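tokens incoming
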């Protein structure tokens, strides 16, 4: 493989990433890590779960991303009385000829914003599983392929637990990334305040089409990842399952179960997408380390002992990254 030629090709073809950052930056002040992770999910064909307190522009960021692509967008407000049919669609009886016809639900779009996803019960969450994994929906005896690109971008509030349902582990694992969003800085919040009070709305223009994203995904697949980087990824994931093998005996009592094989797959895909965003044709260890917390934090469970000592999955991931040898 000619790395130099590949690097030059990626540098040219990834120019649209800067345009997307600029266009989204017209509406979203700061929050660059969140926007970067949304683009990583888009380029890796992976779903993204955003967690943060209300008012941090989670919903706005997703809407702005779809506007920059002119993609089909549907916002679904998840509530305790939501039914699977409200999501995927249903069969409706036609009295005139005594037949049934299919009425498709809002899930038939490019971007699905599942707002406050943890407010819907398990039966609604289960309706999402087939769409998220197989990119298809079954209504009655008919199966429909979903449009490409198809992404579920979900939000949840970590503070308010009244009237919420914990997401099934099978569904949580289907999210490529879980991104935690923090408050903006003082300077950023001043800009946000002025932008909203003065009504400065430049509008978001289309800078790329859904077809261009599908083409960009093929390029992301071409990004070179060395065997040493692949082994580094496996070491990180296996350290969550068998910490004693990596000299992390103290973590053994804090991890209930480690990351699944999806973690290895998504770490590699996420690292490739990070390299693409940085306009490189090859993956470096920093790409893996940058995306690692977002890939792993929802794929490992901590024990009661860890909760009692206020040790979170982020603390464990940091210890693992500090311990596992970087190639």
């Amino acid at each position: 493989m000619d790395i130099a030629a590949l690097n030059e090709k990626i540098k040219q073809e990834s120019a649209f990433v800067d345009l997307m950052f600029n266009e989204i930056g017209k509406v979203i002040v700061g929050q660059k890590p969140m926007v970067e992770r949304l683009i990583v999910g888009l380029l890796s064909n992976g779903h993204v779960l955003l967690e943060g307190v209300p008012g941090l522009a989670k919903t706005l960021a997703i809407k702005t991303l779809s506007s920059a692509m002119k993609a089909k967008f549907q916002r679904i407000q998840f509530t305790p009385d939501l039914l699977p049919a409200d999501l995927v669609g249903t069969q409706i009886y036609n009295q005139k000829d005594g037949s049934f016809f299919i009425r498709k639900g809002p899930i038939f779009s490019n971007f699905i914003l599942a707002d406050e996803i943890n407010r819907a019960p398990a039966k609604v969450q289960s309706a999402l599983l087939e769409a998220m994994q197989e990119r298809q929906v079954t209504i009655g005896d008919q199966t429909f392929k979903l449009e490409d690109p198809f992404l579920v971008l979900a939000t949840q509030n970590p503070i308010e637990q009244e009237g919420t349902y914990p997401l099934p582990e099978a569904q949580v694992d289907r999210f490529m990334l879980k991104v935690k969003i923090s408050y903006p800085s003082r300077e950023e919040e001043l800009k946000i305040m002025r932008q909203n009070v003065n009504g400065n709305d430049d509008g978001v223009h289309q800078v790329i089409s859904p077809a261009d994203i599908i083409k960009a995904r093929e390029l992301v697949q071409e990004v070179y990842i060395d065997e040493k980087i692949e082994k580094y990824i496996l070491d990180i994931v296996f350290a969550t399952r068998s910490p004693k093998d990596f000299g992390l005996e103290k973590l053994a009592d804090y991890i209930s179960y480690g990351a699944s094989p999806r973690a290895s797959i998504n770490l590699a895909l996420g690292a490739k997408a990070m390299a693409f965003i940085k306009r490189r044709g090859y993956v470096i260890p920093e790409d893996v380390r940058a995306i690692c917390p977002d890939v792993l934090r929802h794929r490992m469970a901590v024990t009661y002992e860890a909760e009692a000592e206020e040790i979170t999955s982020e603390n464990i991931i940091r210890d693992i990254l500090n311990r596992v040898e970087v190639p």
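note: The chain has 14 helices and eleven strands.
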